[in-house]
Amino acid sequence: MALAKRYGTVTALSDLTLRVERGSIFGFLGANGAGKTTAVKMLLGLVRPTSGTAHVLGAPIGDRETRRRIGYLPELFRYPEWLSAREVLAFHASLLGTNAAQRTPDIARALTAVGLSERADDRVATYSKGMQQRLGLGVALLGNPALVVLDEPTSALDPLGRYDVRALLAGLRERGTTVFLNSHLLTEVELVCDRIAIVKSGRVISSGTREEILGEQRGLRIRARADGVSLHATLASFGDVTESNGAIVLRDVAHERTPEIVAALVTARARVYAVEPIVQTLEERFIELAGSP
Amino acid sequence: MITIAWMTVREMVRRRFAIAALLGTLALVALTGWGLQHIHTIHKQHGVALSPLEVRAVTAALVPLIAYLFSFILAFAAIVLGATMLSAEIESGVLLPVLARPISHGAVVVGKALGLGALLCAYAAISGGLEFAVIDAVTGYQPPHPIAAIAALAALAIVMLCLTLAVASRLQTVATSIVAVVGFGVSWIVGIVASFGPVYHNETLLRIGVISQLLLPSDALWRVAVYQLQPVVLVAQFGLSGWPGPFFVLSPPPPAMLAWSVVWVVAVTAIAVRSFATRDV
User: Fold this and answer.
1) Which chain A residues are within 8 Å of B92, Cβ to Cβ?
2) Is it the case that residue A145 has pLDDT exceeding 90?
3) Residue from the list B94, B100, B278 with its beta carbon closest to the beta carbon of A72
4) Which of A52, A107, A175, B188 is the least crowded, having the fewest Cβ atoms under 10 Å away?
5) Domain for residue A31, yes or no?
6) Nearest residue, CB atoms, B101 vs list A41, A48, A95
7) End-to-end alpha-carbon separation of chain A, Å?
8) How many structural domains compose chain A?
C-alpha cells in the first residue's frame, strides 16, 4: 500500500510506491524538498508513515531485527567528536550485537573499505567533512549488511572520494548487497545505478532503468548542404525541422530511420557532413520531469 | 540500553565534563570552608568569642543554605545534561545512525537516564561527602543525617532528569531547558508559599503544596533533605517562632510522598520512553 507522510497540512510524501530488487543499486532522485529523506527515514522506521505500509528485506518497515541487516548513512551525518573512528565503529558494532571475536576484523574491514585505516585512532573532531562522511560510510558497512541505505553519500567528498565511493558501491553489488542511493548528483546515479526512481512533491513520477526513464531517443542533428535545394522541405516528411548553430535539428524521429533520412538527403543532392543522434542525458530528462509544473 | 548508558558515562568523562564539575565543586567546597572559618571570628558583645557550641549552632543554621546551593547545582546539571543528551543529539543528527540500529528508541532514553542518573548520584555523593567533611573539620558540626540528605538531593536530581528527558523527547533543547527550569522554580516557590499553611492552619495552602509536590516532587525531596540536616533543637526553636523561612522545614513530607516520588520517576520515565518511541526523528 502506497506510503504517505503529512506534517500537519504539509504533505512530505504522498502515494509512494517502490520496488527495489535485491542485489541491485537503486537510485532515488529528486530535487531538494521532494521527500527523498523522508522516504528513506520511513524505510528505516525513523519516521512513521501517516498511511500505507511497506516491507524492507521481507519485514514490515521499522522491524527491529531487520535493522540488524541494514546499514545507514544519514544526509546530516555527525558522529561523536570525542571518539576516534575506531571507537565510533566499536560503538556501532556493539549496538549491532556483533560478537567480540568478529568485532575487530569487522571494524578493520570497514576502515579499509573507506580509506580511514591510517587515521583510525584520531579523534573525529580532527577529521575533515569528507573524512567524517567516509566514517559514516564505514558505519553503514559494519556487520556485512544486506541493504545499505545511503542518503547523499558523496555530498562532502572531492572527485577522488566520489570515485572511491562508486567503486565501493560496485563492490557491494558484486557481493549481492542491495544499495538504496538517495542523491541529487545525477552523474553519480547515472554511473552506478541499475534502476532509478524520480520523486517530485512526494510522489514517484518516473521509475525504471536509465534507458526506460530516458525513453526512446528521438531526434537527429544533421550537418548537410545543398545548392539551390531546401533541405527543410526534404526532411519535413520525417519530423519537425528547426535550425540550431548552423545544423538542422530534426525532432520526433526514431534513430532507426537514420539510413532512410541520409538516403533522402543524398537523393536531394545534398552534401552530408554529419548525422548525429540527439541523446538526452539523465540530467536533461530529470529537469524535464522534475522541473515541469 | 547498557551500551547507551556506558557511552553516556564515557562521554561525560572524556569530554571533561566530570573533571570540570569536580574542580568546580572543589572550589565551591573550599569557598564555603573559608567562609565557615570566619564564624570563629564572630564576637559577641564585650569582645567575647563564640563558644564551640555556638559555632556549631550558627553552622547548623547555615548548612541548609549550602544544601540549597547543591540542590540547585544538581537540578540544573540534570536539566542541562538531560536536554543536551537527548534534544541536542536529535537536532545535531548524532542520534540518527544510532536509532537506525536494532535497538528500541525507548532503550536510548532509558540508557541515557541510567548513565546520567548514575553520574548525578555519584556527583551528589562526592560533593556532599566532601562538603560535610569540610564543615566538620572547620566548625566541628555534623548534621544529624547527612547520608539521608545526600540521598534525597540525588533523588531530586533524578526527578529533574526524568522530567527533562520526558520534555526533551518532544521539544528542542532550549524549550526543554526552559520548561524544566520553570517547573523546578515554580515547585520551589509553591513549596515556600505552602509552608505558611501549617503556621496559619490554612488548609488551602496545604492542599496547594501537596498538589504541587504530586505534580513535581522536587520540592518534597528538597524538604526531606533539609529536614535530615536540621538538629531537633533547631526544629523545636523554629517551631516556636512561627514561619521558619524558606530554608528550614518544621515537618518533612510523609513517607507516602517518598513512595510517590518513586512512582513518579517510573511513570515519567515511561512517558518519556513512549513519547520518544512515537516521535519522528
Assistant:
1) 78
2) yes
3) B100
4) A175
5) yes
6) A95
7) 26
8) 2
Domain hosting B71: range is 2-277
Please tell me the total number of residues recorded for chain A in this structure. 293
CATH of the domain at A161: 3.40.50.300
Report the alpha-carbon distance of residue B249 to residue B224 in Å, rounded: 8
Report how many domains make up chain B: 1
> Using the 8-state DSSP alphabet, how is residue B87 labeled?
I
A277 CA: distance to closest CA in chain B (Å): 46
Per-residue pLDDT tens digits for A72-128: 999 888 899 999 999 999 999 999 998 888 999 999 999 999 989 999 999 999 998
**Angle, vertex CA A161, rays to CA A155 and CA A162, nearest 5:** 60
Listed in sequence order, the residues at least 6 apart from B163 whose beta carbon sits closer than 8 Å to its beta carbon are B180, B183, B216, B268
Q: What is the share, in percent, of chain A residues with pLDDT greater than 70? A: 99
Same domain, A47 and A171: yes
Task: Decide if A58 is inside a domain.
Answer: yes
Residues A187 and A137 in one domain: yes
pLDDT value for A183: 85
Would you list the DSSP string of A209-223? -HHHHH-S-EEEEEE
Q: Is residue A285 part of a domain?
A: no
What's A49's DSSP letter?
-
Mean residue pLDDT across chain A: 89
The C-alpha cell that represents A175 in the structure block: 557481493
Cβ A210 vs Cβ A237: under 8 Å? no
Same domain, A32 and A74: yes
Task: Kindly state whether residues A178 and A251 are assigned to the same domain.
Answer: no
Q: What is the distance in angstroms between the Cα of A45 and the nearest Cα belonging to chain B?
A: 7
What is the per-residue pLDDT across B120-169, written as a single tens digit (0 to 9) for each? Answer: 999 999 999 999 999 999 998 999 999 999 999 999 999 999 999 999 99
User: Taking CB atoms and an 8 Å cutoff, what residues of chain A touch B96?
Assistant: 46, 72, 74, 76-77
Q: Any bridge partners for residue A195, and if so which?
A: A26
CB neighbour list of residue B170: distance below 8 Å, 6 or more residues apart? B275, B279
Chain B nearest-CA residue for A48? B280
Full domain range(s) for residue A200: 3-213
Judging contacts by C-beta atoms under 8 Å, the chain A residues touching residue B14 are 82-83
Give all strands of the β-sheet with A195-200 in edge-to-edge order.
A70-73, A147-151, A178-183, A25-30, A195-200, A203-208
